[in-house]
Amino acid sequence: MTRVMEIYRPNAVVLQCGADSLTGDRLGCFNLTLKGHGRCVEFMKSFNLPILLLGGGGYTIRNVARAWTYETAVALGVEISNELPFNDYFEYYGPDFRLNIAPSNMPNQNSLEYLGAIKCKLLENLRMIPHAPGVQMTSIPDDALDLDEVEAEQMDAAEDAATDKRGGSRMSKDKRIANDQDLSEDEDATCREKRKDKSDGLHNDNDYDEQKSEIDKVKIYFIIICF
């Protein structure tokens, strides 16, 4: 693991603490004790990197609980007693009612030659794998051509072309063009007042003509009666 850490140089470690390698496991065929299992956690802690411990396998429940309790203490750097405190599940940990478990008389079939061959093979595989980059990671720059922006422009152009066929686009553009001969709001208001005054004067003249016509009609009628 030292060589692995040197090659990859991680910023954090995720360690899965599977308990099926403990002695007495129902499915596993290994013979590790809690202290041997916990040495892995101690070793990974020695790199002084943030470490996240996860659970894993383990099919003898009482030993799984023992292992994770012990390794939580190792991660926190706390010494805990080998004597289990009384609890609702105390009888599950008999007959010794202790934290640590004793190894069985299973023979160790992992010879030094066998372990050395596995180690050499792993180191050779690591040599063929690209190592950690030698420069600081940097953010990837944006593409020179923004595909989203190009697509949006194409959609806008298609909508304008469809609108031009109906004549709406040119009309809407013409409405936004200001005519130099158009009056401003103040000038328009002044013109409206003048037109109103002129209109009022025309109305007054028309009323006078109508009244004069009525008077003439009365005079003619009066003359006819007298004769």
From TrEMBL:
Pfam families: Hist_deacetyl. InterPro entries: His_deacetylse_dom, His_deacetylse_dom_sf, Ureohydrolase_dom_sf. Residues 156-210 are annotated as: Disordered. Residues 2-74 form the Histone deacetylase domain. Residues 162-179, 189-210 have a biased composition (Basic and acidic residues). Gene3D superfamilies: Histone deacetylase domain. It comes from the Eukaryota. SUPFAM superfamilies: Arginase/deacetylase. Coiled coil: none annotated. PANTHER family: HISTONE DEACETYLASE 2-RELATED, HISTONE DEACETYLASE DOMAIN-CONTAINING PROTEIN. This is Histone deacetylase domain-containing protein. It comes from Brachionus calyciflorus.
